[in-house]
Amino acid sequence: MKAVVKYALEDGSTEVRDVPIPKIGPTDVLVKVDSIGICGSDPHMHHNNVSYPVEVPLILGHEFSGIIDKVGEKVEKFSKGDRVTAETHAEYCGKCVMCRTNNYHLCQERKGYGFGVDGAYASYVKVPERILHRVPDNVSLEEASLTEPLCVAYNLVVNNMTVNPGDVVVVIGPGPIGILSCNMAAIAGASEIIMIGTNGDEKRLEKSKEYGATTTINSGKTEPLPIIKEKNEGYGADVVIDAAGPAVTLKLALEAVRPEGTVNKIAWGPKPINYSLDKIIEKAITLRGSFSHTWDVWEKSLKLLEKGQVDLSGLITHQLSIEEWERGFELVESKEGIKVVLKP
Predict the structure, then answer these.
(1) What sections of the chain are H helices per DSSP?
(2) Of 272 and 27, which is predicted with more confidence?
(3) HSE on the CB side for 68, CA within 13 Å?
(4) What's the angle, vertex CA 217, arms to CA 190 and CA 187, rounded to 5?
(5) Integer Cα distance of 56 and 15 in angstroms
(6) Residue 319 C-beta-side C-alpha neighbours within 13 Å
(7) Scanning 73, 119, 234, 303, which has its CA 20 to 30 A from the CA of 313?
(8) Mind telling me which residue stretches traverse the membrane in this protein (predicted)?
(9) What are the extents of the domains in the chain?
(10) What is the pLDDT of residue 297?
């Protein structure tokens, strides 16, 4: 089968190769891939510009959907022909304290699709039954391939922070995670949601209005801090989400949040920050990170799709063949594309 393979830890060391169809074990299924979402981390991996470990050679891709083609002999709840999507946690021990407290996404032995285990930029992918999820009948497989970023936003806003009705929420970074974080904050009841982008983000800032943003700011043209500081009697936002990553956006988040407020960092930023974090003490800020998701988050996110509370189709700007993966990466990096879906 054709697959997009990252074959060395060097910039640009990615290509389409012919590789064997995966062999499944007794508790696995073989999924015939229908749609693959390009995550912003995929081009970073292509350019070898990530701060987390990557095992090579491996097939990229962790956002996907498809149809079960074959089931292992011990698979109990799924059958050939089922429409499915899957979590990114291809491997985890299932025995440690993290796994036993439903934090298996933080297991030391966790290996994710497209990072430590062959992913879904291919015709077929092997998936353990324990991370499979059925796609509702009224949800397209293209939409279902984007369930993973919705789960990231759900886990961030619902499980890893508190957004109360009436809150002022600031989101920095109008990528798919940032846009979906707007959506989740709106569902949670936030009264004002301010999305901050920069030059080149115009299309994404406009799209964020469809997903709950009440105000958008291009920081390349307008200084956002004075606008945010008008909120809550001059104290700033109740909650700030850093969905951009660079040191400068975390600094803005710490300045924009009110005393006793919360800053949640969801985006990776591998470079040193080179400034004081004393704002955390001065304002008694809660600063935390959010990573990935768990089984229950996936089921609830799929319920949101089924009931029409979230529409992922609005984020899909391009569909390309898997052979056009490099063009897809360029669309994401240039910000011309919001979500690009590949087809095997």
Answers:
(1) 41-46, 97-100, 141-144, 147-154, 176-188, 202-210, 224-228, 247-256, 279-282, 295-306, 325-334
(2) 27
(3) 24
(4) 20
(5) 13
(6) 12
(7) 119
(8) none
(9) 2-148+293-343, 161-289
(10) 98
Task: Band the pLDDT of 244: cuts 50, 70, 90.
Answer: very high
Virtual torsion, Cα 249, 251, 256, 259, nearest 10 deg: 140
CATH of domain 2-148+293-343: 3.90.180.10
Q: What is the 3-state secondary structure (H, E, C) of 150-216?
A: HHHHHHHHHHCCCCCCCCEEEEECCCHHHHHHHHHHHHHCCCEEEEEECCCCHHHHHHHHHCCCCEE
10-15: Cβ within 8 A, 24+ apart = 10/48, 11/46, 11/47, 11/48, 11/49, 12/46, 12/47, 13/48, 13/56, 14/45, 14/46, 14/60, 14/325, 14/326
Placement of tokens 């529409």 in the chain:
311
Residue 265 has a pLDDT of 97
What is the mean predicted confidence (pLDDT) over 70-84? 98
- With tokens 């939409």, the residue in question is 143
With b meaning 16 or more CB within 10 Å and e meaning fewer, what string describes 267-300?
A: bebeeeeeeeeebeeebebebeebebbbbebbeb
What are the tokens at 301?
A: 């996110």
Query: Does 269 have pLDDT greater than 90?
Result: no
Distance from the first to the final alpha carbon of the chain: 10
Task: Decide if 2-148+293-343 and 161-289 have a common fold.
Answer: no
* pLDDT, average across residues 6-27: 97
| CATH superfamily, domain at 161-289 | NAD(P)-binding Rossmann-like Domain (3.40.50.720)
Q: What pLDDT sits at residue 282?
A: 98
Q: What amino acid occupies position 254?
A: L
- Residue entry with tokens 């993973």: 148
Let me know: does 150 contact 310? Beta carbons within 8 Å.
yes
